[in-house]
Amino acid sequence: HSNSFKSDEETPLSNSALGASRYSGGGGKRLYNTLRARGGDMNLGFFSAIANMDREKLVMAVALFATYFSVMGAKCALPSTFNLIMSAQSGLNFYGQEPQQLIAKVLVISTGAISLGKFLLGPVIDKYGGVFCLKVALSLLMGCLAMIASTSSFGVFAVSWIMVDFIFSSCWAACLNAIHQTYQEEEWASRIGLLAVAGRVGNALSFFAFASVLQIVQAQRQSSSIVAAATDGSWRVVFWVSSLLQLFPLFTFGIYQRIKDAKVVCSINNNNHQHAVGSKEEKIAAIPSQQRRTMKDSLKILGGEAN
């Protein structure tokens, strides 16, 4: 094998050649192991690349995807349940007015709330940061959706949905701010594209999921041996699901915050350690040279005293 292989620098090998040389004998195996130890031309693969990513950035990517997925899903709750909400069996008190007219007024006001939110909430996001604002927005969104799912008053329903649209208006800007906080400038485009994909996927899957939920609830209601109630509350299940869906991005942001806090603590500890080492070296350097005796000087002194 001594003539088959040259030095590491003189013999560039492809991945396949490296793999084959591993079984060609002692020299090939040694060369393969040497290049692998040096981090040679080895293909890491998708999962290895994921494992080597910064955990903070990886968790943030998951959190942002989950945020826009769940928010867009929540926005689909009302269009998915229009007919049920406006029916006489919805369980909502419309105060003797036409449900269609009241819903139309709510949609007009909520559209204005989106525009107002984009105008007012931008400076707030810039001041407090995208991550903090997203956590607040998701918490409020979850509360408003739960309020819609549990109320029997159309007034509460209307105010809650207007708040949902107002909060929704801040999510895109807050996500962009979080991207700017976490990633390098060359990574911004790919993360923004990820948000767009999350919005589309959340929109499509939510309509499908809500339709399935309504169908299941309606089927159970019709097949039940118990006499059907005068109200049809199947639309409330959709809003409960939308509310609980916000827990996943909130949980993911919690993991992100723990990782970030751990990095800060580690950085502080390292700085304190370096400061302590530097202070010790400064103290030693401040001692006059005549006071800093070496081991050889100490032995000479002891020998003189013994004599």
Descriptive overview:
The protein is mainly alpha-helical and 307 residues long. It has helices at 15-21, 26-37, 45-52, 55-75, 77-80, 82-85, 99-128, 130-150, 154-182, 188-223, 234-245, 247-286, 295-306. Helix 8 packs antiparallel against helix 9, helix 8 packs antiparallel against helix 12 (247-286) and helix 9 (154-182) runs antiparallel to helix 10. Residues 1-29 and 38-52 have low confidence and may be disordered.
Cα Rg = 33 Å
Largest sheet: none
Low-confidence stretches: 1-29, 38-52
Globally, the shape reads elongated
| Structural class label | mainly alpha
Helix percent reads over 70%
So how many helices? 13
Distance between the termini: 68 Å
Total strands: 0
Helices and strands, in N-to-C order? HHHHHHHHHHHHH
How large a portion of the residues is in β-strands, by DSSP E? under 5%
Mean pLDDT: 75
